[in-house]
Design a protein that fits this description.
- The complex is a heterodimer of chains A (447) and B (114).
- Chain A has 18 helices and no strands.
- By secondary structure, chain A is mainly alpha-helical.
- Chain A has three domains: 77 residues; 183 residues, no CATH class; 135 residues.
- In chain A, α6 packs antiparallel against α12, α15 packs antiparallel against α16 and α16 packs antiparallel against α17.
- Chain B has 114 residues and is of the alpha+beta class.
- Chain B has a single domain, classed as Orthogonal Bundle (Arc Repressor Mutant, subunit A).
- Chain B has four helices and three strands; from the N terminus they run αβααββα.
- In chain B, strands 1-3-2 form a three-stranded antiparallel β-sheet.
- In chain B, a hairpin with a 5-residue loop joins β2 and β3.
- In chain B, α1 crosses α4.
- The longest helix of chain B has 25 residues.
- The chains are: A mainly alpha (447), B alpha+beta (114).
Chain lengths: 447, 114
Amino acid sequence: MSMDAETENQIAGWRAAILRGRAVDAADADELEGHLREQVSDLEAVGLAGDEAFLIAVKRLGEVDALTAEYAREHSDRLWKQLAISRTDDEPRQPLVVMLVFAALAAVLIQVGRLLADIPGTDGMWFVRDLGLFVLPVLAAYFAVLRRMPVARALALLAVVAAMAAAVTLFPFEPHSATGILIAIHLPIVLWFVVGIAYVGGELRSSTRRMDFIRFTGEWVIYYALIALGGAVLLGLTSLILAPIAPDAIDDVMSWVLPSGAAGAAIVAAWLVEAKKSVIENLAPVLTAIFTPLFAVMLLVAAVGYAAVGIGREFDRDLLVVFDVLLLVVLGLVVYGISARDSGRAIRTMDVLRLVAVVAAIVLDVLVLVSMLARVGEFGFTANRVAALGLNVLLLVNLAVTAYLIARVLQGRPAVHVERWQTGYLPVFGGWVLLMVVALPPVFGFA
Amino acid sequence: MNIDKDLVAAMATPLVLAILVESENYGYAILKRVRELSGGELEWTDGMLYPLLHRLDRLGYVTTEWGASPEGRRRKYYEITETGRAQLAEQRRQWDTATRTLGGLWGLAAPAGA
């Protein structure tokens, strides 16, 4: 017996309500809904109007809260099982198989690279430079398959990656060249943007999809770190177990298992993020909430300290990298914090803290830039200085506008502008790292 | 007449198992049967039947199978297992003892078939 539209709406609303607590799963909801519908039909058959019948049927089933509490008692495992992958019977198995194939592919490719790099007489440095090429294109391909990317677009992307691989491989780098190290740093980032293009599945201009990719990146890092921790425990125990009986085998095991595991984990982590979006969506905001105040304090102290003391002569490349990573982390905290805000209950204090963190970051960035410009004025441009200067200018512009936009948020403007600004800025970062990979080494003569 | 909540809870398992002995069945029909048997005197919050059925499933007293309703919606059928029947027999012995004891005090006849 079919229900009228109003009753259908009410049933849909009720179903959503019982599913909310996660103690009731979709199959249980089907069962309960079937019960509800049959009860409504029976009541209508004895002459009740649709809405009356619905009200009585729902009341007989019991309060939603009491009902879900009862389910939670019987199925307490479900509240935990959310951390594992739950798959209903009608969902296709394909993604798991696809994921395993791609993870295996990455694991094999990295070994091929390692064996090639081990050939006596070759300079193994190229392997360090090209490391990303053995893993990230596989991840991009995985998403291309998952998102059913049109063949033409996939081939175009493949051509870009191939051209980049050829360029990086054919560049005649000098031994221990600075540009070679810059490539090793920037190539994975360029490839990560390639992954992003595959991830957004053709909706390159969509701000929402770009934001999804930023979220994906953060969540991927969290999952990868978790897998790496597990892997470290496994390998540590393995070598302890092997030590008494086959101490010579430890190195072999490590050189086979570690690279393959690390490469395969990149795909597995991506799959986990996709499969369990909702769980970590709850984790990233928590981490952001914990660390935003701490980083704000740390940045404030650092900004005041460096402003008072000045960035001395000893300011070297390592410290510069530390600063840049710090600024990127601040940016990440701001973006995640803003994007995870519940529009219903925005917390003003957190916005103030974000503003403090960003302003302190700007102060630090200006100090770094001044120090670097002085260096450039004194000793001229090198590949390293161009790379560092460019990144810091890009960060400064981004942070300045971000600070302005957060100030506007504090005045009551919607936070979506901060998000738009960050997603709109992604191509700038992408273009810059691409320039670093393909243009910088030739300009500086592969030194 | 309102039957005490704890008593209803204690009766629930043997009642459901006994209904399933008649034939395999699904939730709504099981509840209808309960109302029918108790003449509407046994008030039960309908939704609570399902966590109970799931518990019986977990304990191995029943097995489940998805079927379809006449309208084509999926519907979960419960069938009693051998373990379930044994459990029911055990509960029946306990209930017989309880009713016989109280019956002896209150001058009621002990239920037949004990």
